[in-house]
Amino acid sequence: MIERSRTIPKGSLGELFWLYVERVVGRRSLKRYLLQGVTFSILSELPTTWSSLFRGIVYRKLMGHMGENCIIEKNARFYIPERIFLGNRVFIAENTHIDPESFQSEIRLENDTYISRGSILRAGYQPEGPCKIHLHEGVYVGDRSFLYGAGGIEIGRFSTLAYNVGLISSNHSYNDPSIPIRFQTSKLAKIEIGENVWLGARVVVLAGMKIGDGSVIMAGSVVTKDVPSDSLVAGIPAKVQGCFQINRS
User: Fold this and answer.
1) What is the enclosing helix (H) or strand (E) of 20?
2) d(CA 91, CA 24)
3) Residue extents of the structural domains in the chain
4) Are 223 and 39 in contact (CB under 8 A)?
5) Residue 197 region, left (φ>0) first, then alpha (ψ -120 to 50), else beta?
6) Architecture of the CATH domain 12-243
7) Angle at 42 between CA 39 and CA 47, to 5 degrees
8) Contacts of residue 106, Cβ cutoff 8 Å, sequence gap at least 6
9) What is the pTM of this model?
10) Which strands sit side by side in the sheet containing 210-211, from one edge to the other?
């Protein structure tokens, strides 16, 4: 596991402005900041009914990559878009936040992924290497889900997240009572979710967990241990309740 500390930025108004530019663009580029800001400010508010495909065409110039026939609804917000990579036919719904958080991090959504309303995908940051959220082909993320990829998140093909699902690949340390928890180090570990997995409503998956192919995590469960393939899991903490007899040959 990799550790990371957090601090509150201090400095003059000018220095804080450049820190903000770095936060939304990924580097200190006033030209990029203005281009990105004007483009997103004008287009993000346009009605969904006639401008979703248009946004997909124009945003392509700002993204790290954007495939064909992507649909982006209004009020979807993108930070550091050069570190966002979209495949073909990606759907990003209204009021979502897609946020690599650092130019060293990335968010990658493969073909036919679907991000529902109000969801937040935040890759995070770690000094030793890139943080990454990687959703493979056909992954569905339900309303108001939160994916925090500081330790890395990878979701296999055609897996489904219901609404209000949380994938949290980091955990605050709290060993030193003299320091506020917010400023103590974070422990980071990758979450790996296999193919054709279903996470029910309000499921939480903690850092370092692996969920095997074909498993079902029932609503409200908190996953604190690895889950074998083809398992039915429920509870806080989640435990295997049964298994599916699947012939994968």
Assistant:
1) helix 13-25
2) 22
3) 12-243
4) no
5) beta
6) 3 Solenoid (2.160)
7) 125
8) 64, 83, 84, 85, 100, 123, 130, 131, 132, 133
9) 0.86
10) 65-66, 84-86, 106-109, 132-135, 153-155, 191-193, 210-211
Question: What integer pLDDT is reported at residue 248 of this predicted model?
Answer: 60
Cα separation, 181 vs 93, in Å, equals: 34
Q: Order of strands across the sheet with 170-172?
A: 2-4, 186-188, 170-172
Cα 38 off chain centre by = 24
71-72 and 91-92: which strand pairing? parallel
Identify the weakest region by mean pLDDT among 10-14, 88-92, 136-140: 10-14
What is the C-alpha to C-alpha distance for residues 230 and 138, in angstroms, rounded to an integer?
Answer: 19
Q: Could you give the residue numbers annotated as active site?
A: 172
Q: Residue 33 — pLDDT band, cuts 50, 70, 90?
A: confident
Q: Which whole-number Å values give the CA distances from 147 to 33, 134, 144, in the listed order?
A: 25, 11, 10
**Phi/psi of residue 114, each to 5°?**
-135, 120
**What b-and-e string marks burial along 185-205, b requiring 16 or more CB atoms within 10 Å of the CB?**
bbbbbbbbbbbbbbbbbbbbb
